[in-house]
Amino acid sequence: MSAEQGLRERKKEQTRQAISEAARRLFAERGFDAVTIADVARAADVSEGTVFNYFPAKEDLFYSEMETFEATLVEAVRRRAPGESVLAAFRRFVLEGSRRLADEEVADVIATAGRIVKASPALQARERQIVSDYTHSLAALLAQEAGARAGAVEPWVVANALMGVQRALVEHVRARVLSSIRGPKLAADLRSQARRAFARLERGLGDYGVKR
Questions:
Q1: 20 to 30 Å CA-CA from 14: which of 105, 151, 153, 205?
Q2: For residue 2, what pLDDT is reported?
Q3: What is the rounded CA–CA span in Å between residue 50 and residue 20?
Q4: How far apart are CA 3 and CA 64, in angstroms?
Q5: SS3 for 51-72, per residue?
Q6: What is the spatial distance between Cα 143 and Cα 52, in angstroms, rounded to a whole number?
Q7: Predicted confidence (pLDDT) per residue in 78-99, tens digit
Q8: CA neighbor of 191 nearest in space, from 97, 107, 52, 105
Q9: Is the dihedral of CA 53, 124, 151, 69 positive or negative?
Q10: Are 26 and 61 in contact (CB under 8 A)?
Q11: How far is 130 from 29, CA to CA, in rounded Å?
């Protein structure tokens, strides 16, 4: 990459970051639904068109990091080492990511995001859509790897089970943060819950919830 191209890319990333930071600040102050794209553009000192160039919808301003995480999670499964199972790769990615929860500042970000999402039906709907989209992506990857016929149920079941654990852990962390659990205790709690959940998937459901 030439020096000129490198400078252009850095400027684009700086603009994207400025827009993202302005949006997060406004969402935290006013709530998601009360903020317009025009508000974000003014706060970032750019045009509305520039905002849309980087973030096609207002929800993208809030969920761009989540979409990056979900895409990286699917890619971690795709690039797993020979001999490593899908479950092992998925679990490893989740547990490695839990380390960042030991940072007190991360808990503050989670708490703010949790309150904003709770107050916005639009964000709740978009979050469900993102999860659905990446569950489909994971299921398609598993079906392709297995050479499964079109419409096969097993890859879909596996993808939903794994993504279900991930989403349950997200909700668990949000709830724990809002109840003032944070730092190393929060990270340890997530790892404990994750290991139990993934161990259940490892064993299967045949012995779970047998009614006495």
A1: 105
A2: 66
A3: 12
A4: 28
A5: HHHHCCCHHHHHHHHHHHHHHH
A6: 35
A7: 999 999 999 999 999 999 999 9
A8: 97
A9: positive
A10: no
A11: 25
DSSP character at residue 143: H
**Length of the chain in residues, anyone?**
212
Which tokens is 67 given?
């979409």
Residue 151 in tokens: 């419409």
CB 64 within 8 A of CB 25: no
Tokens of 193: 């819950």
pTM over 0.85: yes
Q: How far apart are CA 195 and CA 121, in angstroms?
A: 31
Query: 194: how many CB neighbours lie within 10 A of its CB?
Result: 20
CA–chain centroid gap for 91, Å, is: 15
The answer for residues whose C-beta is within 8 angstroms of residue 18's C-beta and 6 or more apart is: 44, 45, 46
CA dist 160 → 6, 10, 103, 106, 201 (Å): 40, 38, 30, 27, 11
Cβ(30)–Cβ(43) below 8 Å = no
Give the angle subtended at the CA of 80 by the CAs of 76 and 82, to the nearest 5°: 175
Q: Taking residues 196-205, what's their average pLDDT?
A: 93
When the pLDDT of each residue in the chain is averaged and rounded to a whole number, the result is 93
∠ CA(174), CA(170), CA(118), 5° rounding? 50
| Residue at token pair 């600040």 | 25
Amino acid (1-letter code) at residue 199:
A
Task: Answer whether residue 30 shows pLDDT above 90.
Answer: yes
C-alpha to C-alpha distances, 50 to 8, 23, 47, 53, 174, nearest whole angstrom: 15, 13, 5, 5, 32
